[in-house]
Write a structure and sequence with these properties.
The complex is a heterotrimer of chains A (about 150), B (about 280) and C (about 750). With about 150 residues, chain A is an alpha+beta fold. Chain A has 5 helices and 5 strands. A 5-stranded mixed β-sheet of chain A has the order 2-1-5-3-4, with helices on both faces. In chain A, α2 packs across α5 and α3 packs across α5. Chain A is globular. In chain A, about 65% of the residues are buried. Classes of the chains: A alpha+beta (about 150), B alpha+beta (about 280), C alpha+beta (about 750). Chains in contact: A-B, A-C, B-C.
């Protein structure tokens, strides 16, 4: 099937098998390898991207289902060499160790603030329920989201 | 973790979708249950019809004194609907308890309900709400109540070729309180047991009670014995306790790694009691 | 350039954000799966669905003929490849031959049977379904105790866990036949050891193999190993003369990557009436799994070494029984033997306190090895380097408000509420370790180069992968050389770039690798001063702030000027070579022994059995701290894995050897909403073992955590007569205790 998707503002057209997963389109067709396959069953969130403004798990969607969609991946966050405030907050607060979950974690964290600019710690923790990190124990991630929220409120 | 080959159609109309389903295609909505099963090769449909392509199936509206929710309304649509929050808070509360943010962004009420996972959250609330399900076939449409819709584990009243087009729930008055209480399985987030309570009070007495239970047995069900026990009662802790004690009566409870049948039965009682207390406390 | 401004900013000890992060937060880091090459082929491995079976026949005809398929190899097709190695030599240790693909028998679910190679991973996956294997299914043993006689003592289980690194394993092999050169990208903690061992398996000269551990997405011990797939992917690439990629699926990661723990312990503890511990006895049953992987037999030995804990007793006895089961092998997982031992000892000390009606804090304080006894030789042959065990416990008791909490608990009990306070005081064996005590050499290496421009390049053999040494090592070098962090680059993880090294595990990278770096820097500093003295024409010089300064005139030469002069080499100091580079292989004289105290306050829902952690106070002593931000991160992550074991995680096999927690759907790892806030604090007792005074902190959180949690819950339920509960403390277990004891 011929499909066209917009990823980070750039259009990608490709003839794909219906079974091609969206994450493989992002990684192999668009060559954007920041989005990671972690669990393959939509439970770990490492593959989280933004699709038409909503955080979704790209390992549990076929690329054909995203036909015509507007997708943002972690690579699309920084602009002109300037990091997104959430990226900056993860860096400042040591919200990552091995980094594998980080792109998905940042995308999910952005969704939290998109919907709720001043979340409580509990709301942050529940907002990240779909993202597993095996390194950090989440505390510094929670701090990062808090810091990004505080920064945006300034 | 790669699905077997299949054909895919994004139908332009409901008729086209129904036509394809009639010839054996399988519907997909959010895909939150189906796609993992396909990737594990536990499901291998030959042809998928993507109902999310039908934009006019995603709606939440009030009409004729009832609330109508289109099959492809996402859990997030439900969770964040101001209309539902005001007029059917049980549904927004239940939707918010499903999975995680990303799953709620993609998963749909129709997909979840039609999949009929015995540990899914929605069916408890829809049983308590006495929801009606609009099933659309190529030639006709029929409406089925919740007690008849949920047949067995992963089995509903849907016939081959039919799709679930809409879910209809009632609008309760201010004397009604609701609550959904759940113990989540820590790995998957599904309900080990979930109880939805809907109670109405009149002059200090319970005039009406509905309890929907999920996770406990092979299908979500209404705890009729508990409901009957509550009617006419003044909702003392003892009234609630004795009614809650009946929720698992006659039920062949599920047992798995995460909870034995006995524990599930016990949890159903505890959560029924908590759901009832919370529901009563929410009555204006 | 005769300015004499001295740079005063130092970096060691500061909360400095990590230098490795920009690539990780922008999605531009390269993990194994991100490696792309022209002509890449993809391997999918067909695995046994049975835990024990005889293979009667394998028919690959249809798979070979399938679209896109290049070749299929079965065990019989593999010629001249050595066994998957076990690195532990012990007298009479039975090491079953472990071929990279099964030949006639399979011994666990997931045992590799055949590899399918295709131009496309989807087609490779399709073809794997077309291989027909005729199995004769045999009875399986999944429970290590079923093979043994019963003993009744306090039985304490450290259940099997799945390490579950976020990045699964993966290998890209690239064979250049004309050069006899194999490049192997693999997600490993030990690239040099993988090179030595896999080259050996493949019969390839070691210097013809290059192993690259690119970005590694977590290991926790599971990538401290040599796996069949590393040799297999290399073998296939050599056969088909194309680059080949194999990426482990999450399902494979659960069933085929080593598990951790899997110990059943029978403990006895003896004490005087006044609480003085006299001795500890242990029979340890290790669930080995189907094979010995690289370090499998070592893990229970680490448990036994750790048995004295922090306590002053010279009477220790242990027997280890390793039992083969039809399950994936167990091996090192965060803490590797030490969490199991600490869990057992700290549980036993609590039971002893209960028996003697002593306060659990008091009995610990009474039995600690006291400050004046260091270095302290243990009954298990170790020499604890330095310690002050009472201080972190007292600090934790203060922080948590222990006495007030005990009063609150007494009141709660009157209202039939279940509230628990649990203490664990742990020690660990870190900075692994002196070479005579380790199977592959316990030293670490570092090279420091100062380039002609004055920029500094460090190559560490330690191969950090998330622990932050690209930052902490830069901090050490920046302070030693007096340069800025931005002047320094830390390289790791490529055997063609970095001198031989051992790797990152056992909380060793900073203590051993950082010390190697420190000594290499001292060599360089001496040479810098020599050149500086020559250029300044003075013997009386000081190296400070990135300059060599003449103490008499105040004239100086910058590092850049000196570096340039060493390479230009117009003039050399006497007996001095050109260039500015130093390498050290540093052999530590001893392990280090960090310690600490964790206190956990729990409230139990009397109706459902659910446990809520109200407070988590951790006071860890890891010696000097180079970067508090990174140390806190290690503690938090360690506690999360300890809490995972205490409350949720368990790898469960059924009687047929099927892993029924084989997906994240059923295996509960901690998620953000399940974690309590961790109050992380420190005391500081520097290690005398290394010049940095550091001890290591990677495993501390995990080791300290699980006994504190279980002690807390047992404490909460103690009025019911509950003495011990095995992990994970599921709500159902608690509910059953409440239901039967009430």
């Amino acid at each position: 099937m011929d499909i066209t998707l917009t990823i980070n503002g750039k259009s990608y057209s490709q003839d794909v098998e219906p079974r091609l997963l969206l994450i493989h389109f992002v990684r192999d067709v668009a060559g954007l390898t920041g989005t990671h396959m972690g669990c393959e069953t939509s439970l770990c969130g490492a593959c989280t991207v933004e699709l038409n403004g909503k955080a979704i798990k790209s390992c549990t969607m076929f690329a054909v289902q995203a036909k015509g969609a507007d997708i943002v991946t972690v690579e699309g966050l920084a602009s002109d060499g300037k990091l997104d405030p959430m990226q900056e907050a993860f860096w400042n607060e040591h919200g990552l160790q091995c980094g594998f979950c980080t792109p998905g974690m940042i995308m999910a964290s952005k969704q939290i603030l998109d919907r709720n600019p001043a979340p409580t710690e509990d709301e942050i923790r529940h907002g990240l329920e779909g993202n597993v990190c095996r390194c950090t124990g989440y505390q510094h991630i929670v701090n990062a989201v808090k810091a990004a929220a505080a920064g945006a409120g300034k | 973790m790669i699905a077997q080959k299949f054909e895919y159609t994004a139908p332009k109309s409901l008729d086209e979708a129904l036509h394809l389903l009639a010839s054996g295609a399988k519907p997909i909505a959010g895909g939150m249950s189906l796609i993992p099963m396909m990737k594990l090769r536990l499901a291998a449909p030959e042809h998928l019809v993507d109902l999310r392509a039908l934009k006019d199936l995603s709606y939440i509206r009030e009409a004729g004194g009832q609330l109508h929710i289109g099959a492809t309304a996402s859990h997030y649509d439900v969770e964040s609907s101001a209309l539902l929050r005001q007029k059917c808070p049980l549904l927004t509360e239940t939707a918010a308890a499903i999975g995680d943010v990303q799953v709620r962004n993609m998963g749909t009420i129709g997909g979840s309900v039609a999949h009929a996972d015995p540990a899914a959250d929605y069916p408890a609330a829809l049983q308590a709400l006495e929801a009606k399900f609009v099933l659309q076939g190529a030639k006709s449409e029929r409406v089925v109540g919740a007690t008849d819709f949920f047949v067995d584990a992963f089995t509903t009243a849907l016939e081959p070729g039919e799709i679930l087009r809409e879910v209809i729930v009632p609008i309760d008055d201010a004397r009604t309180g609701t609550s959904y209480q759940k113990m989540a399985q820590p790995a998957s987030g599904f309900a080990i047991v979930g109880v939805a309570a809907r109670v109405r009070q009149n002059a200090g007495k319970i005039s009406f009670a509905r309890l929907g239970i999920t996770g406990l047995s092979n299908r979500a069900y209404r705890a009729s014995a508990s409901e009957k026990a509550l009617e006419g009662k003044s909702s003392t802790p003892a009234d609630i306790q004795s009614a809650a004690a009946l929720v698992a009566q006659g039920i062949d409870a599920n047992s798995d790694l995460h909870a034995s049948a006995d524990y599930r039965r016990h949890l159903a009682v505890v959560h029924a009691s908590r759901a009832l207390k919370t529901a009563l406390s929410r009555i204006a | 350039m005769a300015t004499t401004t001295v740079k005063t900013e130092t970096f060691v000890g500061k909360r400095i954000r990590r230098r490795e992060d920009p690539r990780l937060i922008t999605g531009t880091a390269t993990y194994v799966e991100d490696v792309q090459m022209p002509g890449m082929h993809y391997a999918v491995i067909l695995r046994s669905p049975h835990a024990a079976a005889r293979i009667r026949s394998i028919d690959t005809k249809q798979a070979v003929a399938a679209p896109g398929v290049v070749c299929v190899f079965t065990g019989k097709d593999i010629k001249g490849v050595g066994a998957v190695p076990c690195g532990i030599a012990m007298p009479d240790l039975r090491v079953p031959p472990h071929t990279i693909l099964a030949t006639d028998r399979v011994y666990f679910v997931g045992h590799p049977i055949a590899v399918v190679v295709a131009r496309d991973r989807y087609l490779a996956r399709d073809a794997a379904d077309l291989i027909e294997v005729d199995y004769q299914v045999l009875p399986a043993v999944a429970d290590p105790e079923k093979a043994l006689a019963k003993v009744v003592k306090q039985r304490i289980v450290s259940q099997r866990l799945v390490p579950m690194a976020m990045e699964t394993r993966g290998v890209v092999a690239e064979w250049h036949g004309a050069d006899r050169q194999l490049n192997l990208y693999t997600s490993t903690q030990i690239p040099h050891l993988v090179r030595t061992l896999v080259a050996g398996m493949l019969g390839l000269e070691e210097n013809r193999m290059r192993v690259i551990a690119p970005e590694v997405g977590g290991g926790f011990g599971s990538k401290l190993n040599v796996y069949a797939e590393e040799a297999l992917t290399g073998y296939v690439s050599m056969k088909i003369q194309k680059p080949v990629k194999w990426i482990e699926s999450r399902r494979e990661n659960f069933t085929c990557t080593i598990h951790g723990r899997g110990h059943v312990d029978f403990y006895e503890i003896a004490a005087k009436r006044d609480g003085t511990i006299l001795g500890i006895k242990l029979k340890l049953i290790q669930d080995v799994g189907a094979y010995h992987q690289l370090l499998t037999p070592l893990i229970p030995q680490l448990s036994v070494l750790m048995m004295p804990g922090l306590y002053n007793t010279q009477n220790i006895r242990a027997d280890i029984v390793g039992v083969f089961t039809n399950c994936v092998p167990t091996d090192a997982y965060r803490g590797a033997g030490r969490p199991e031992a600490t869990h057992g000892i700290e549980r036993m000390v609590d039971m002893l306190a209960a028996e003697l009606q002593m306060d659990p804090a008091e009995i610990r304080l009474k039995n600690f090895v006291t400050k004046d006894k260091f270095p302290y030789p243990t009954a298990t042959g170790l020499v604890y380097d330095s310690g002050d065990y009472a201080t972190p416990l007292k600090k934790a008791l203060d922080l948590v408000g222990y006495h007030k909490l005990r009063q609150e608990q007494a009141d709660a009990r009157k209202q039939s509420k279940y509230m628990g306070i649990g203490i664990s005081t742990y020690g660990e064996i870190c900075a692994i370790g002196p070479s005579p005590a380790t199977p592959a050499g316990g030293w670490e290496s570092a090279t420091v180069k100062i380039e002609p421009s004055g920029k500094v390049t460090i190559m560490t053999g330690a191969c950090p992968h998330g622990q932050g040494e690209e930052t902490t090592f830069a901090q050490i070098a920046a302070d030693e050389l007096g340069v800025g962090l931005d002047d320094i680059l830390v390289l790791r993880g490529d055997t063609a770039v970095v001198q031989y090294g051992i790797g990152t595990f056992g909380s060793r990278a900073t203590a051993v690798g950082g010390s190697a770096l420190y000594y290499a820097l001292q060599d360089l500093k001496a040479k810098i001063k020599k050149f500086g003295a020559m250029l300044l024409e003075s013997e009386d010089v000081t190296l400070t702030g990135g300059k060599v300064i003449c103490n008499k005139t105040g004239n100086s030469k910058s590092l850049q000027e000196i570096a340039g002069a060493t390479y230009r080499a117009l003039k050399l100091p006497p007996n001095t070579e050109p260039g500015l580079m130093a390498t050290r292989f540093w052999e530590p004289p001893n392990f280090t022994f960090p310690f600490g105290a964790h206190i956990v306050v729990t409230d139990i829902d009397g109706e459902t059995g659910q446990i809520k952690i109200r407070r988590y106070v951790a006071v860890d002593d890891c010696g000097n701290i180079l970067n508090p931000l990174i140390v806190d991160g290690q503690v938090h992550g360690g506690v999360a894995q300890g809490l995972g074991q205490a409350l949720w995680e368990q790898a469960v096999y059924d009687d047929n050897g099927q892993l029924i927690t084989g997906e994240l759907m059923d295996y509960a790892v901690p998620r953000s909403h399940m974690m309590p806030w961790i109050e992380s604090h420190h005391t500081c007792t520097p290690s005398p073992v290394n010049p940095l005074g550091v001890k290591g902190v990677g495993e501390a959180g995990t080791i300290g955590c699980s006994p504190a949690v279980v002690n807390s819950v047992v404490d909460a339920l103690s009025p019911l007569g509950v003495r011990h509960i095995d992990m994970p403390l599921t709500p159902e277990k608690i509910w059953k205790l409440l239901a039967t004891k009430n």
